[in-house]
Amino acid sequence: MDNGTGDLTGLVDRLRRDRRTHPYRGRREYSQAARDLADRCAVLIDAGAAATVVPVLRKAVDRMTAALMYMDDSSGVVGDDLQQIMELYAQACIAAPQNPRRLAGWLVKLECDGPGWPRIVLRDFAPALGASGLAEVERLVADRAATADPESWTGLFAIRDLREQLAEVSGDIDRQVQVLAEHLTNAVQYARIVDTLRAAGRTVEAIAWARRGLAEKAGWPHADQLLDTLVALLLEQGDSEAALAVRRAEFERHPTLEAFRAWESTAVQAGAADPTPAAIERLRQRVAEQPLYVSELVDVLTAVGAHGEAWTIGRANADRLGRQRWLGLLERRSATEPAEVIEPYQHLIEEQVGDSGDKDRYRRALPLLSALQAACRAAGQDDRFAAYLADFRERHRRRPTLMKTLDAAGFHA
Q1: If DSSP codes are grouped into helix, strand and coil, which group holds residue 355?
Q2: Based on the number of CB atoms within 10 Å of its own CB, is 51 exposed (0-12), middle (13-18) or buried (19 or more)?
């Protein structure tokens, strides 16, 4: 019978891969083969021929899972192709129901014993598994948990992932929160609980969990996203005072330009007073305690347009600003008071040329010389630049590479 499926075997055969093949060889062709198969199977599923493609897609998943163990996929392209095949397999299983217990067994085995790919998404397979299949997944996961090696991180993670997904597809919010709360090891886990409660309309509980997460994981990776969510929830509740208190507390804890902008943005949303005076005062206090915070003070002053004060403080603390921030300050000051940046630029040039650890030190000095020349010209002191360049060349005349670099750039004697 020719229903357009005759080429499926040939397509899936292209996904065979000899483990002896060089990891970099044939990746593009392999990816194209997977996409060709996916396109063909999608057409057949839409045409009502899902039963025909189920075994083909299952075989494709198995072959691609194995192939990725011996192929370099640092770009993630083939991994994405495999994930698409998995999604199609789930669709095909829904359209052409399979034995739910066997499907459950395959999914659990792939998750727990596989190499870590593809990602098992129970939500996609839930309609095909049905109540009996999901119950089988639950049973198998419980068995795995009872016999898991406590030293196997990958095994424990797979079990945890499946338990969390089972809680999600159950639709029981309390169960989902309970399972997620078993592993409060990072800010992301708190955020998942908050998002779950928020989506369920349980805003008060979501706020409580967000506050708890920030109290326990302040400063951790992704805690800033959790804080943003808390502020959004408080604003949705109409509690702008609490939202502003959260922003202020975060700025008090870690007074940075980013924290200031977030506080300022929330104040605008809430129609509250400008927090700039309070923020600058707090930064002045922090600089007195920890001088390295002077860079943040300069950033905030610059952001609010207090360029004169930013320059005064920055110049007095240039060694604490960092090169890029100091250069930015010089560039801005040059636009209004070019005479004031002449000496700082000269100092940077000498410092750059003397940096023996930088093999490109001469080349990197050229933009500084150009900036110095422009500042002298803007200040009406062209003679000053000419005198400096002559003196500079004289002092470094025994550096032939530097002399050639200067000549090539047009900085002649």
Answers
A1: coil
A2: middle
CA distance linking residue 96 with residue 55, whole number of Å = 11
Q: Helices 240-253 and 276-289, interaxial angle, to 10°?
A: 20
Q: What is the pTM (predicted TM-score) of this model? A: 0.83
Q: Domain coordinates of the chain in residue numbers?
A: 252-321, 339-413
Contacts of 258 (CB under 8 A, 6+ apart): none
Strand ranges (E), 94-140: none
CA–CA gap between residue 199 and residue 372 (Å, rounded): 57
Average pLDDT over every residue of 125-147: 96
pLDDT tens digits for range 299-338: 999 999 999 999 999 999 999 999 999 999 999 999 999 9
Q: Report whether pLDDT(255) > 90.
A: yes
Long-range contacts of 296-304 (CB under 8 A, 24+ apart): 296/255, 296/256, 296/257, 298/325, 298/329, 299/256, 299/257, 299/325, 300/257, 300/260, 300/276, 302/329, 302/332, 303/257, 303/260, 303/261, 304/276, 304/280
2 pLDDT above the threshold of 60: no
